[in-house]
Design goal:
- With 429 residues, the protein is α/β, with parallel strands linked by helices.
- It has 2 domains: 207 residues, Aldolase class I (TIM Barrel, Alpha-Beta Barrel); 166 residues, Ribonuclease E inhibitor RraA/RraA-like (Glucose Oxidase, domain 1), CATH 3.50.30.40.
- Helices cover 39% and strands 21% of the residues.
- An 8-stranded parallel barrel has the order 1-2-3-4-5-6-7-8, surrounded by 8 helices. Strands 9, 10, 11, 12, 13, 14, 17 and 18 form an 8-stranded mixed beta sheet that branches. Strands 15-16 form a two-stranded antiparallel sheet.
- α4 packs parallel to α5 and α12 runs parallel beside α17.
- This is 3-hexulose-6-phosphate synthase.
- Its EC number is 4.1.2.43.
Length: 429
């Protein structure tokens, strides 16, 4: 028997969730009222799904960890066929939920997110309630850090565990292999972020039924090359949102529109006008680096055409200067990405004061050697090297969600309507 496909609707807006479910319903077997939606709309969301999709199995992802009997009863009476609880709970709570599920006529899905003794717990749950789903789950925050669905699914299947569900980071490329071991495949973002929901759901369904891999546009970064590819795709605005509205460098912009730069920082600290260290850095930096210069945010210039030509010879990706540049007519012809605070005609003398490859402040933002530098028409942002995988994945998530919202706005709506802005204005005192 082929694995079923469940669509996870992790929205806070009920209308958006319903609309996307309607687009996908011909290709999915089950619909999940996601935890954010339940927290946003309560059991009304489950009732609405039950009413609008009478022929679909409805899962209420309650993520229950306490008061199990009450929450299972609530969800079941609202119309849920399956209720999701957390496997990290103690056995008394788990078994109480399983008993309540039998009493109220719904199945229980035990979400094994962050459960360390997964095999032991899965066996005890199956022994007590063979009908329960055991869900191997890689959480969204874990996915953002580049983690992938583990081999636990195959281990559970080979150990004789039945009714295995799997969730987290699933797309049409990896779902075919997972389908060999699972009863239920739970997919969210690879469908809900698509401009064409029906097409994406159809690809996933085909990959499950044929147990094959189909190329997907929805991937997560886990290597440096993948990080760079994502940073090429997303904007500095996307990255800022991903970093909780992180600050870009103050007053530093491309000297002409349309420039973009991505690379790891090679840093320079110097005095305004003293271009010796700036030029020396070109010999020290590696191909692919972005040279970032703290020149006190003042004139005279520390950079010009000859330094730019040298960078092109070395394969340097660009320069960011908290200070001044000159020769912009010539540099413009070279199409070399330069992001600067000031443009001037005069340079200073190469006295050699300063340091290379040290922590600096550029435009009010700290930059360390090896940090990722991304610049575009909106400005320049810094991503700490150790956070790059997570930030890249979160920025891509922002980009993909905005892409989906553009599609919904294009269907004669507005941002305020799609995102229910008025409803979600802050109510803090």
């Amino acid at each position: 028997m082929k694995a079923k496909l469940q669509l996870a609707l992790d929205f806070v807006e009920l209308e958006r969730a319903i609309n996307i479910a309607k687009e996908a319903e011909n290709f999915v077997d089950m619909l999940e009222v996601g935890t954010p939606l339940i927290k946003s709309e309560g059991m009304n969301a489950v009732r609405k799904f039950r009413k609008d999709f009478p022929d679909k199995e409805i899962c209420a992802d309650m993520k229950t960890m306490d008061v199990g009997r009450t929450e299972v009863e609530m969800a079941a009476k609202a119309g849920a066929d399956i209720v999701g609880i957390l496997g990290a709970s103690d056995y008394s709570m788990l078994f109480e939920c399983l008993k309540a599920g039998r009493n109220y006529g719904c199945k229980i899905m035990v979400d094994m997110l962050n459960v360390e003794n997964l095999m032991e717990k899965a066996k005890k749950i199956q022994e007590f309630a063979p009908e329960a789903y055991i869900c191997v789950h890689l959480g969204i925050d874990q996915q953002m850090k580049g983690m992938k669905i583990s081999q636990e699914v195959e281990k559970l299947a080979k150990a004789g565990i039945n009714n295995i569900a799997v969730a987290g980071g699933i797309n049409s490329e990896n779902v075919g292999e997972l389908a060999k071991f699972c009863t239920l495949i739970i997919v969210g973002a690879a469908i809900t972020k698509s401009r064409n929901v029906a097409e994406s759901a159809g690809k996933l369904k085909e990959a499950i039924e044929k147990e094959i891999s189909i190329k997907s546009e929805f991937r997560k970064a886990s290597s440096e090359d993948e990080i760079l590819e994502i940073f090429k795709k997303v904007s500095t605005a996307n990255i800022s949102d991903a970093m909780h509205r992180a600050q870009v460098m103050n007053d530093i912009k491309p000297f002409k529109p349309g420039m973009k730069v991505i690379g790891k920082a090679f840093t320079v600290r110097t005095f305004s006008g003293d271009w010796a260290k700036a030029v020396e850095s070109i010999n020290k930096a590696k191909a692919g680096n972005v040279i970032v210069i703290d020149a006190n945010g003042k004139s005279p210039a520390v950079w010009g055409e000859l330094a730019t030509l040298s960078c092109i010879q070395k394969g340097i990706k660009g320069v960011v200067i908290d200070g001044a540049i000159r020769d912009i007519k010539e540099i413009s012809k070279l199409n070399f990405p330069a992001f600067v605070k000031l443009i001037t005609s005069n340079a200073g003398e190469p006295k050699g004061f300063g340091e290379l490859d040290v922590k600096i402040s550029c435009g009010g933002v700290d930059v360390r050697p090896g940090d990722y530098i991304i610049g575009d028409d909106d400005g320049v942002i810094v991503v700490p090297e150790e956070d790059a995988i997570e930030v890249a994945n979160r920025a891509l998530d922002v980009y993909e969600k905005e892409d989906r919202i553009k599609e919904e706005i294009g269907n004669k709506s507005t941002l305020a309507s799609v995102a229910e802005i008025e409803k979600w204005e802050s109510c803090k005192r």
